[in-house]
């Protein structure tokens, strides 16, 4: 149980690093003998900058109650960027290591650079016009990649895991489907 709580906390940390958690998700919390739901909340952005270029986002630390225990997610700073450019270094790393067609891949990566980089592989399903369908139902694998591209782990949730446990894989897959993809759906459909 303690391992699951740690993985959940790590997953929520990833979520906050990616920026899309906010007050959208609710995490169940239990107190004996009744069950209640406590929303995840973040405070207003600590800084506001008006510039023509995107400024790094900073949020204050959030407190999450899960399973009767309190977890603190550290402050988030930086931006997540999206690309489906086949020449992106993270997409190239996945395509080279796993022999995947780069046209099936999309990437979100951390700016400034960190080890919180993800490549999504879609199953290749197309619509009536021949356009690739990229959404939660066509997501096949999620790859987690270090900033230097030397460490790549893959998950398909319960199956297809390489360098990732089933528990961590399911958590990453669900976080991706519920939080990350909706955050970048406009870019995926472009």
Quick recap of the structure?
By secondary structure, the protein is an alpha+beta fold.
Overall outline: globular
What characterizes the major β-sheet? Answer: 6 strands, antiparallel
Mean pLDDT rating: 72
The number of E-state strands comes to: 10
Order of helices and strands: HEEEEEEHEEEEHH
Q: Into which percentage range does the β-strand content fall?
A: 25-35%
Helix content estimate = 25-40%
Number of domains: 1
Rg from alpha-carbon coordinates: 17 Å
Structural class: alpha+beta
Strand order across the largest sheet: 3-6-7-8-9-10
H/I helix tally: 4
Distance between the termini: 42 Å
Low-confidence stretches: 1-9, 15-60
Q: Top keywords for this entry?
A:
4 helices; two-stranded antiparallel ribbon; alpha+beta; 190 residues; six-stranded antiparallel β-sheet; disordered N terminus
């Amino acid at each position: 149980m303690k391992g699951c709580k740690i993985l959940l906390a790590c997953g929520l940390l990833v979520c906050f690093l990616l920026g899309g958690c906010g007050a959208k998700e609710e995490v169940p919390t239990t107190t004996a003998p009744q069950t209640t739901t406590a929303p995840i909340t973040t405070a207003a952005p600590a800084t506001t900058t008006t510039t023509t270029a995107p400024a790094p986002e900073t949020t204050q630390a959030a407190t999450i109650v899960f399973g009767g225990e309190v977890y603190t997610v550290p402050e988030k700073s930086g931006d997540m960027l999206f690309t489906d450019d086949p020449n992106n270094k993270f997409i190239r790393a996945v395509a080279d290591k796993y022999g995947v067609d780069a046209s099936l891949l999309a990437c979100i990566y951390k700016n400034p650079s960190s080890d919180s980089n993800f490549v999504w592989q879609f199953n290749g399903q197309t619509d009536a016009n021949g356009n690739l369908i990229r959404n939660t139902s066509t997501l096949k694998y999620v790859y987690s990649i270090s900033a230097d591209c030397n460490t790549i782990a893959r998950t398909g949730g319960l199956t297809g895991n390489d360098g990732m446990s089933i528990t961590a894989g399911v958590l990453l897959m669900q976080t991706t489907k519920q939080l990350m993809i909706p955050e970048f759906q406009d870019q995926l459909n472009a």
